[in-house]
Design a protein that fits this description.
The complex is a heterodimer of chains A (273) and B (358).
Chain A (H helix, E strand, L loop, with lengths): L8 E2 L5 E2 L2 E12 L2 E12 L3 E5 L6 H8 L7 E6 L2 E2 L5 H6 L2 E4 L11 H7 L9 H6 L3 H19 L15 H14 L4 E5 L7 H18 L2 E5 L3 H7 L2 E6 L2 E6 L1 H5 L2 H8 L5
Parallel strand pairs in A: 5-10, 5-11, 8-9, 9-10
Antiparallel strand pairs in A: 1-2, 3-4, 3-6, 6-7, 11-12
Helix pairs in contact in A: 3-6
Chain B lengths: L12 H4 L6 H21 L2 H27 L7 H18 L5 H20 L7 H21 L12 E2 L4 E2 L2 E2 L7 H24 L1 H11 L1 H6 L4 H28 L1 E2 L1 H4 L2 H14 L4 H25 L4 H22 L3 H15 L5
The chains are: A alpha/beta (273), B mainly alpha (358).
Chain lengths: 273, 358
Amino acid sequence: MNDMNHDSYVTADGRTIGGVVMEMKNITLRFGGVVAIQDISFDIRQGEIRAIIGPNGAGKSSMLNVISGFYNPQEGDVFYHGKKRKPMRPYQVARQGIARTFQNIALFEGMSVLDNIMTGRLHQMKAGLFSQALWAGRANREEVENREAVEKIIDFLEIQSIRKTPVGRLPYGLKKRVELARALAAEPSILLLDEPMAGMNVEEKEDMSRFILDVNDEFGTTIALIEHDMGVVMDLSDRVVVMDYGKKIGDGTPDDVRNNQAVIDAYLGVAHD
Amino acid sequence: MFYREAGDFKTSYKEDNQTFPIKFDRYRYYAVMFLAFAVVPFIVNDYWVNAIFLPFLIYSIAAIGLNILTGYCGQVSLGTGGFMAVGAYACYKLMTVFPEVSIIIHVLLAGGVTAFVCILFGLPSLRIKGFYLAVATLAAQFFLVWLFNRVPWFYNYSASGQINSPERTVLDIAVTGPNTDAWAKYMFCLVFLTFCALVARNLTRGSVGRKWMAIRDMDIAAEIIGVNPLKAKISAFGVSGFFVGIAGALLFAVYLGAAEAGDSFGITKSFLVLFMIIIGGLGSIFGSFAGAAFLVLLPVLLKNVLVGTLGWPTDLAAHFEFIIVGGLIITFLILEPHGLAQLWRVAKEKLRLWPFPH
C-alpha cells in the first residue's frame, strides 16, 4: 500500500482520511496449541471505515478482541496514536476512546433503553459517591448534561419512541441499534463493530449501513467492522483486511481485494495438491 | 382515572428524571410521608411499635442494603446476619467507649464499620460468582458470629456474653434503653429509614446505579464500556454494608435492647432478609419495603387469626405459622417470580389506562 503512506488523502466521496491512529504490528495470539492469529500487521487511519473479513474461524473476532483488550497477544504490539500500548483490561481500553458492539448483542436486559445508552457515558460522569447519594450539585448537573448528549444520539438513530422501554422487550434489529447508540454515547475515537448486520433483513441492513455511514460522516468516527455480507463490506469500507486461518491474505481497497487471487481462493476454495 | 400522565408535561430532563413522574404518585408519596411523620407517632402504642413498626422499619433498611448488593449489583450474599452483627457490635462498642457522643453518630459509624467489613468479604467477588460467592459470604456469616461469641473484647467481658444497649438520648428524649417511649423509638428508626431510602434511590438512579446494574446484567459488556468491575462491586458491597450495618445497630440498640450474636444474628436472619428482597422484588427500592412488610406482618396476622379468632393453642399456631408462611412464599414465587414490586408495576400500568383500556 505504498500509495497510501502519505499523511492524508481525500476519498472519492469527499471525506478526508487522516494519518494512522492505530497500528497492529506482528500480532500473534495463541490459545494453548491453537494459533488464532499469526503474525498479522495492519493499520487503521483516522476517519476511515476499515473492514476485517474472512471465512468462519479466520480469527476476525479474536483480532477485535485484541484491539478492545479482552485478549493480550503473546507477540506483537498495538500502537495507538503512535504510542505502544501496554497490556490492559477492557475498561482501560474503553477509557482511551475505543468503543465496540458485539456479535451477539450484549445489552443490559434489565435496564431501559435510556439507561443502557447512559451507561455509555460513564467516562463523562465523574461525580463521587457522596454527591450522588445526596443527588446534589455535580451529580445532578452531570445527569442533565449527559442526558442532553444521549438525547442527540437517540434522535440520530431514530429511537425516540422506545427510550423508556426495557431492552428485554425490544426486537432484534432495534437491540442492535441500541447497542450502537450505547457505543456512540461514549464519543469514541474508534468504533469497533462486530458483525453489525448479522441476522438482519434487507431493510434493517440498509438502515444500519446508513447509520454507519452517517456516524462516520457526521462525527468523524473511525470505524473498524467485521461483516460477512460482502455487498455491504465492499460498499461501505475504504480499506479491507482479509484473514484466513489466522493469517492475513489481503489488504487494500475493496477493488484490490476483490481481484486478489488468494482472497478468491479462500472464499471459493481451491484444490490443494 | 386520576392515575395518569396525560396533561402532566415534563419540560426539563430534571423533571423527567424524578422518582415519581406521575402526579398522583407524588401526592401519594407526600401523604405517606405525612402520615408516617406527623400522624402515626401520636397514635401508636407499645404493641404496635414493638410488634409491627420497629421490625418493619429496621428490616426495610436491611432489605434495602441487601437489595443494592443482590438486586442491583447481582452479587448474592448469605452473610446479612453476620454483617448486621458487625453493625450491632460496632454500635455497642462505640456507645460504651464514647458515651458522650450522640447515638446518631454511633449508628452511622457502625454502618461505616460494617461497610468496611463487607468490602473485605466482598473482595473474592472479583474472582467468584453466583453460588460460589454465596458460599463465601456464608463463611463470613459463620465466622463473624463465631468471632463475636468467642472474643470477649467485643461484649466488654460481660458474664452473660450478651451486649446490652445503655440509655442514650437525642434532644433529651431517650431513644434506647428500657425507659424509652414507643413513639421515640419509632421516630428514631423512621428517620434512619427515610435517610437510607433516599440515599439508595439517589444512588440507584445515577451513574453508580447504572454501573451496578451493568455488572448484574452482563459483566463482560459492562467492562467493555468502561466499568471497572472491581470498583463497581466493591462500592456495592460498601454501600450495602453501610445500610445493613445501620439496620443491625438499630435492631440491637433500639429494638432488642440486648443481643447475643448467635441468637440474634444467626443464619436465619440472613435468609429472612434474603426472602424479603426475593418476595419484594430484586432491584427495587419499593420491593424492599414490600418484602419487609410482607414477612413482618404475615406472622403477626396469622397469629392473630389462628390464636385470636380460631382459638388454637399458641404452640400449635406457632408451628402452623411456619408451614403457612413457607407455603405462601412458594405459591407466591411460582405466581410472580419477580416479586411484589412487579405486581405493583403491573397494577400501575393497568391503572394508567383504567377505566378505558382501549
